[in-house]
């Protein structure tokens, strides 16, 4: 079902480098409404659960370690065509391949420390958003 919602995290690298405000500014100026927002941190166990789909990949252990290395910002965003438009706004997973002006092009350093996460489908946006937020925290 199309929900016009996506889920994002501002990852530990972008938080540590002081980019929370600039990234949220890019997101809202691109027309996304913030439906839920939280400054928090993932334990290694929670990061492992969140990225369980990648558990067979060679980068999984490093990804879990990185994603639990410091605070993150979690958010649910709403806009027509949210999934595709947000993936366009953030750019390719590997920032060296991300288009100029995209969030990863501007703020990311590597494929692992790539500044932001964006859901890849409506179904995963719902699962990922509900991983962080209860119904009482979504507006
Ligand atoms: P994200 O969109 O959060 O989803 C999975 C993450 O795994 C991805 O962003 C990257 O940060 C991370 N990752 C680390 N190494 C790789 C890799 N070689 N290929 C794809 N993703 C990787």
UniProtKB/TrEMBL annotation:
Annotated GO biological processes are:
CTP biosynthetic process; GTP biosynthetic process; UTP biosynthetic process
PROSITE patterns given in the database record? NDPK_LIKE
The Nucleoside diphosphate kinase-like domain, residue ranges? 3-137
| Top-level class of the enzyme under EC nomenclature | transferase
Q: Quote the record's binding site residues for ATP.
A: 11, 59, 87, 93, 104, 114
Recorded hits in Gene3D superfamilies, A to Z, give: Nucleoside diphosphate kinase-like domain
Q: Which Pfam families match?
A: NDK
Domain of life, per lineage = Bacteria
The EC number of this protein is 2.7.4.6
Annotated GO MF terms: ATP binding; nucleoside diphosphate kinase activity
Sorted UniProt keywords: ATP-binding, Kinase, Nucleotide-binding, Phosphoprotein, Transferase
Residues at the catalytic site = 117 (pros-phosphohistidine intermediate)
SUPFAM superfamilies, alphabetically?
A: Nucleoside diphosphate kinase, NDK
Which family does the UniProt entry place this protein in? Answer: Belongs to the NDK family.
PANTHER family in the record: NUCLEOSIDE DIPHOSPHATE KINASE, NUCLEOSIDE DIPHOSPHATE KINASE DDB_G0292928-RELATED
* Designated name of the protein: Nucleoside-diphosphate kinase
Species the sequence originates in: Mucilaginibacter gilvus
């Amino acid at each position: 079902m199309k929900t016009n919602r996506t889920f994002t995290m501002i990852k530990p690298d972008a938080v540590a480098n002081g980019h929370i405000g600039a990234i949220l500014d890019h997101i809202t100026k691109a027309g996304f409404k913030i439906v839920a927002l939280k400054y928090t941190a993932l334990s290694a166990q929670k990061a492992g659960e969140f990225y369980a789909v990648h558990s067979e990949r060679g980068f999984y252990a490093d990804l879990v370690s990185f994603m639990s290395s410091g605070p993150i910002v979690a958010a649910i965003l709403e806009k027509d065509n949210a999934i595709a438009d947000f993936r366009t706004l953030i750019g390719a997973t590997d920032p060296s391949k991300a288009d100029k002006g995209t969030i990863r092009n501007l703020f990311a350093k590597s494929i692992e420390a790539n500044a932001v996460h964006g859901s890849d489908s409506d179904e995963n946006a719902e699962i990922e958003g509900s991983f962080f937020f209860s119904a009482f925290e979504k507006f």
